[in-house]
Model the fold of this input.
Amino acid sequence: MKEKIRQIEESAEKELVNSKNAKELDDLRIKYLGKKGELTQVLRGMKDLSAEERPIIGGIVNKLRDKLEQIIKEKEQQFEIEKLQEKIENEKIDITLPSTKVKRGSKHPLNRVIEDIEDLFVSMGYDVVGGPELETDEYCFERLNLPKDHPARDMQDSFYITSEYLLRTQTSSVQARVMESNEEKTPIRIICPGKTYRREDDATHSHQFNQVEGLVIDENITLAHLKGTLEVFVRRMLGEKSKLRFRPSYFPFTEPSYEVDVSCFKCGGSGCNLCKQTGWIEILGAGMVHPNVLKMNGYNPEKYGGFAFGTGLDRLAMFRYGITDMRYLYKNDVRFLNQFSQFER
Ligand code: PHE
Done:
């Protein structure tokens, strides 16, 4: 019996130490220590031994079992560490490999123009405000000195939703809202960029377009303030050499009113196809706030005056980037939009 145990010890020890992986180790554990394992068989045979031999053999077998279990434990730990090392090895990142290029989007030309205008006016102390695109007739027209049936309403083809609600045709609607909601009737200095809607659609007009409105209300505001402000604005947007020309015009909410032209930035004023040989391009509507508008929105026209201006952002973007059809701005064709990443600041 002792000889048998010695043989088991010898072969088990050798095989266990030489086992190459967890699976092999487990098979060996079953082979020797499992229910039908070789060492277990020895224990079963003990019943045939004499009473003196039994404890001696039992002791030897138990010691051997402890020893084998100890070897198994150590091997298990060894395999565990090897597995971890292999995993770390495989997960190594080769930082010398060239990376895949991250695709960057680019800002929409309209947003570039809007952000530039906002930066400029904020630097001059203006607030940027928004207003609803679904507007009431009251704020879009009536409070701007355009009562119902006023012929000047024909200047803007409107999308009416009901008889009271329409898609705003101009950001001037925000003038009225800001004046009215300013309860203390303190001075105002705002710009309002936003979407506007009119019933038109061709290469230079879209049914939805963008405007920015400017409004300043204070004591002692003169036409010189308006001219100076627009000069700064236009030079910043279209080039330092730009010259302005004020032509008398009509808007119901301003008096006097002007259409403002800028010297053609393509030909410098000598005449080309962009300015239709005139040397000038019309870009803005502007004027001194009409006393009726001040009164209707709670400001005393004896004390306060102001100026307002409005311009189409789409046209500005077209001029700035040489875009030939306004509808490109709304089609979101990536081939078109990608071209603007070169202007990234
Ligand atoms: N709201 C006018 C338009 O859309 C432009 C404008 C704004 C004119 C402010 C004068 C003052 O045509």
Residues 170, 172, 213, 251, 254, 285-287, 308-310 surround phenylalanine (CB under 6 Å). The first helix runs from residue 2 to 18.
